[in-house]
Each structure stands twice: as structure tokens, then as C-alpha cells.
Amino acid sequence: MSQGIDYGNLMHTAMRGLIKTVLERVSDTGLPGAHHFFITFDTREPGVEIASWLRERYPDEMTIVVQHWFENLDVGDDGFAITLNFGDAPEPLYIPYSAIQTFVDPSVEFGLRFESTDDEDDPDEIEIEPIEVEPDEEEAQHDADIVSLDSFRK
Q: Which of 56, 57, 96, 112 is the most exposed place for a label (fewest CB within 10 A)?
């Protein structure tokens, strides 16, 4: 007999697919308008490729900003590669989608946080929650769209 539908992991997969789709569009056409991203990822996650000096500086997690200057955005099925400027030194990075902890586009008050639970019975279970994004002054009158995923959890 089936264990049931694992909505938590299905949402996890869908939200990471959303990030992949957004990055594919940016790779094809560039960042439209005021869009920009803050992406926090776990530097310990298998498959993360960053320079050794960055790994020493950010041993647990790192936040990158994709905005004015980036190159070589290559979006794959399991992650993305990008070259960013760190103190006038271009550095290539590879970030698996599974390493992403937060993805925020403050220009439209959109954000996602992926959190692992401490449940020993299911270490792969992921909690996804929208995060509050500080609005730009001109957009302060608009409320962010919030999706509660708590109702999908066991």
C-alpha cells in the first residue's frame, strides 16, 4: 500500500524548478527592469564549486547577488554556473539547486526559503516557506503574495 502523497517534497521540486526557469530566462534575455536576486546557498552541499578562498571565508553558507555584473550564466538540470565579481576578481561558481537555502527578488517582493527539518525519521524532508521581503519605497503600498505551505505538511 502507498505511503501517500509527499506534498512537501513535491513542492520542494516545483519551487526549485521555478528558480531554474527564472535563471534560464535571465540567461537567455538578461535581467528585465529592476529584477535582481539574492541567493543564499549551503557551501557544504555536495557539488558546490567555489574558489578555496571563498570556501574559507564562507564555510557554511554564502549569499550572492545577481544584479549588475555577472557572466557565463549556464543553467543546467541540477544546478547553475555563474561568474561573479569579488573585489575586481571574476570568480566562477557552480551551485546545485539542492544547495539553495533562500531565493529572493526584492524588486517584486518575492522570496522563498528552503529549510531542512531536524526530523531523524525523514532527513530529506524539506520545509518551504515564503519569506518577508522589504519593499522598495515606491512599492511599499503593495502587499507581497504569500503562499502558506503549512497545510501540506503531515
A: 56
pTM for this predicted structure = 0.73
Largest separation between any pair of C-alpha atoms in the chain: 58
Starting from the edge strand earliest in sequence, which strands make up the sheet with 90-96, in order? 70-75, 79-85, 90-96
> Which residues pair with residue 71 across a beta bridge?
83
Non-local (6+) Cβ contacts of 98 within 8 A are 16, 45, 47, 78, 79
Amino acid at 15: M
The predicted-structure confidence for 43-81, as pLDDT tens digits, reads as follows 999 999 999 999 999 999 999 999 888 899 999 999 999
